[in-house]
Amino acid sequence: MTYTTTTAQIQEAREMDAIDPLRSYRDLFHLPLRENGQAFIYLNGNSLGLQPKSVRKFVEAELLDWEKYGVEGHFKPVDPWVDYHELLTRSTAAVAGALPSEVVVMNTLTVNLHLLMVSFYQPTAGRYKILMESDAFPSDRYAIASQVKFHGYDPETAVVQLRPRQGEVLIRMEDLEKVLEEEGEQIALVLLGGVNYYTGQRFDIGQITRMAHAKGCRVGFDLAHAAGNIALDLHRDGPDFAAWCTYKYLNSGPGNLGACFIHERHAYNPELPRFEGWWGHNKQTRFNMRQAFDPTPGAEGWMLSNVPVLPLAAMRASLEIFDEVGMPALVEKSKKLTGYLESLLKGLENERIRIITPAHPDERGCQLSIQIQNGDKSIFRSIREKGVIADWREPDVVRVAPVPLYNTFEEVCRFVGILAMAIEETK
Q1: By residue range, what is the domain housing residue 26?
Q2: 221 and 289 share a domain?
Q3: For the whole prediction, is pTM greater than 0.90?
Q4: Structural domains in the chain (count)
Q5: To 10 degrees, what angle do helices 409-425 and 327-347 make?
Q6: At 367, phi and psi to the nearest 5?
Q7: 266: closest CA among 302, 291, 304, 214?
Q8: Does residue 83 lie in a domain region?
Q9: Three-state SS for 67?
């Protein structure tokens, strides 16, 4: 029997949308359209966030300043380019739960991870290992392996992979504790994701940091799937560093700049090893040009080059929305929306469907990873043809992310009906 979304279910979803305090923010984004002119159900914000309609205004303002001032745009406009990145600092700090001096927008994610490992991965003969999750995103695995090899070590022995237990998909904290107990004296750096890209599992940043610091390890996090998705409190939780991209939940545009966090206990240490660049030099003497490197206090001391204003302008458009809504309201709706999706999926009572994302709302963000027994990519293609943009991960997982800024309860309800039909068609 084919499952269809009932009229009563749609009405219930519409009633929840009607009382949603964030419902109007959907109108601030461009929604991808199907050939028939209807909007796709876009559940892929965990890969690329939608474009805020205000992006054009912000970018065109800088194009006009470039047209009007040429090189003098660095100093003459209302928003001078020389310190344009500072316009995003407080917003970025609010998303990260950090002090403004602890964050900076610069480069892209993997570039920043490399730069931060220059500072925080300082191996010695006795302490040289890096602990990471076994199923981290490939760029993290590549970056970590290359850093280890750069220092003359073999990734086979110097990279410790934290794995789920046999037959499980999620990492247990007690297993992390066991690894640290057994190998902590040899681990120089713990570098984990804030939210695992595949399972959607959220890691407890504060607890992991305390456990690792107790063993003398430095601690960093890749927050690509966490920033703009979950409540972060990096200053309080105390990791040594973190880095993230901004084109997923932060809606800054494809391949846009990343951001990084360096805890204040390090950010003001001019002796900390780093790769140096002009824009990280003391602002008061930067244009004297001939002085030895004198790092700007705070995270800005890790900057290399002058800021790319046009990408920052696009990012500014999205962060303006985050400033207005605030992370607490976003997280509140996210838990309701994701919980609703989970309840509908379980209501299907389909033995082929297994949600591999943690069930507890505090152990995940808005992403649910749906494993489909005996499924293949034909299911993903089918839901795409039926009007859903989601994400497929081999061999059998559909990842969906109902983003609280622009997804609705009705969309979630309709998606579940579409998914059920697609699964039945592949019997």
Answers
A1: 7-51+327-425
A2: yes
A3: yes
A4: 2
A5: 30
A6: -80, 135
A7: 302
A8: yes
A9: helix
